Amino acid sequence: MSVVLLLAALPSLAQAEGPQALFYRLPYFAADDTAACRSDVLAYFQTQPQVKKLSAAEWEKFSEAFYRQLEARDVLRPLVDGRQVLIGTNIRWLSVAPACHNVLLSCDANRPDSCAEIASLPNEQVLTPIYSDQENIVAGRETFAGDVLNIANTDFVISNDHGKSWSDIALPLPCNSRGVSCRLIAQSALHYTLISTTLNPDGAIRPFQDVSLHSTHDGGKSWTTVVQQWRGIQIPEAVFVKDDVAIAVPEADGEFLTISRLDLATGNQETLATQIPAAKWDTRNYRFVADFKDSYLVQVEARESARFGKIGVFVVAKDTAAPSSKLVWQSDGASITSVYSSATAIVIHSATIDTKRSARARLSEKLLYSLDGGANWKQFAMPESLLGSMLQLIDNKLWLFSPAAVNTLDLATLNPD
Prior knowledge:
There is one protein chain. About 10% of the residues lie in helices and about 45% in strands. The protein contains five helices and 28 strands. It has helices at about 5-10, 40-45, 50, 55-70, 70-75, and strands at about 20-25, 75-80, 85-90, 100-110, 110-120, 125-130, 135-145, 150-160, 165-170, 180-185, 190-200, 210-215, 225, 240, 245-250, 255-265, 270-275, 280-290, 295-300, 310-315, 325-330, 335-340, 345-355, 360-370, 380, 390-395, 395-400, 405-410. It has a four-stranded antiparallel sheet, with no helix packed on it. The chain has a four-stranded antiparallel sheet with strand order 2-3-4-5. The longest helix is centred in the N-terminal third of the chain and has 13 residues, at about 55-70. It is globular, with a radius of gyration of 22 Å. Residues about 1-15 have low confidence and may be disordered.
């Protein structure tokens, strides 16, 4: 984050109003909240000639701009699971001082006044909640080294007393080793699926090998290898798991893209054909899939794309006898796109990127959402105060997490553009 970038942000500090409902103001990342944990970055900026020339009032605006530039993805690790909202913090983006602790915050989703810190961690550790019920919390644990922001290793932990104490989850492979990437999906406090990949020795064609899947029903005491290498799938985050079935879009090797389904209980695999032409839509760098009622939602990148590609979202029928594939959205420029689904709604969230600056330079964000299974779509432009938020969808309620606050949007009552 440069001095020039922050100075350019000074005129636009006012937060825009919007239809969002404030759930909880986060007391960690605003300038007034961090007096006891002063930003290392701001301390560095104060030594720079451009900043030394600022008046006291200009310095105050400069400091506010710094905190407004914080990205939710950098400092928050949220989860909405049933009636619970859990948020892990990463205070290292402000300071790596040992006195600056990270926390895990817990809230009742229906009672904002219930929010409380249930765990405190040293500065070098960050918790990412994965699953929760009344007593149990499963989380990823990122451990950092020294004063750097790069993760040194990642493992997984569980609390059986709602955050008071934690124990390591035994894994079938060393996820915290160099060159290994792991993702844990928890279906319950004891039932997990571990998706992993490792660097190719030569990296000539693909940097990572095809993913492996392991399953446990006893909290990691014993693991079963479901598949050693799932052909054509190298990204753990690109795998969707529901009801003991894993689905993913493998690399294209024919005229049309396919969806691969893996039964986690038996290891049986099947392939669903789509009508998405491989000549137009690329699966080498970007493809994700999600389950929605009688269809799958598939995100792929247009082959004409360069950096920050043009993304298409398809609704693909699950009926293997008639694999219809409908293009429901396509970005008209460089964008970052995410698709969310619940039992009642589909939401496509896209951010148009200013590629002349960086992936953080969002020109605009919009929601395209459907409450009738994709038959009809509405569009909503995100207000300035919500830009850069992390999203989670529960039924018709969209949860939006920013460094400043947790907000919600009710899609059923939202007035579209």
